[in-house]
Amino acid sequence: MGRSWGVVAVMVLCASGLLGIVRGHGSMEDPISRVYRCRLENPERPTSPACQAAVALSGTQAFYDWNEVNIPNAAGRHRELIPDGQLCSAGRFKFRGLDLARSDWIATPLPSGASSFPFRYIATAAHLGFFEFYVTREGYQPTVPLKWADLEELPFINVTNPPLVSGSYQITGTTPSGKSGSHLIYVIWQRTDSPEAFYSCSDVYFTDALSLHSTT
């Protein structure tokens, strides 16, 4: 009887899309990632044009599985494994809608050169590991497919095992200085208890006004 109920439970999870959530692990919450924003908009009826286009290309399940934009065997080989133009999907066909080169991805206003800024990474499963935050170079064009060369060479934040508070990793750091206008923040979460790594793209708009920061 127990085994039968277990099989039924797995079938129900697969049918409802919850199995992906159970094994998923996280994404950027603030500034919000593309995949998490589209999930919050509702994959069945997304409201922004960019999310509508992403869902039309990838299908709805990719956004129910928002927390598994990953490579199981990455082991730090991110640039080797992820082709140019596919950074936001981590090279996974399932998430290809995240790579759409568009100017209308909703961007989070972000102050340039602000110290002690509270970044947040929502985690559905906690793991030991380190986070690397990269930002695009000056001259970034969101309508051109994102390449590795479009990112600054070094991360502006590199932190190991940040505190997990209320389901989100709290990562305090200084935002990139000298930036203005539209940019993208690319975050890599590399586990140290496994070769698995997670990836996210957050569209941002840099401003000098701290008061303009928003998570919505």
UniProtKB/TrEMBL annotation:
Protein keywords: Metal-binding, Signal
InterPro entries according to UniProt: Cellulose/chitin-bd_N (IPR004302), GlcNAc_Chitin_IntDeg (IPR051024), Ig_E-set (IPR014756)
Alphabetized GO MF terms: metal ion binding
Residue pairs linked by disulfide bridges in the UniProt entry: 38-51, 88-201
Annotated Gene3D superfamilies: chitin-binding protein cbp21 (2.70.50.50)
Sites where the protein binds Cu(2+): 25, 127
Segment forming the signal sequence: 1-24
Keyword Iron listed: no
Domain Chitin-binding type-4 stretches: 25-204
Protein name, per record: Chitin binding protein
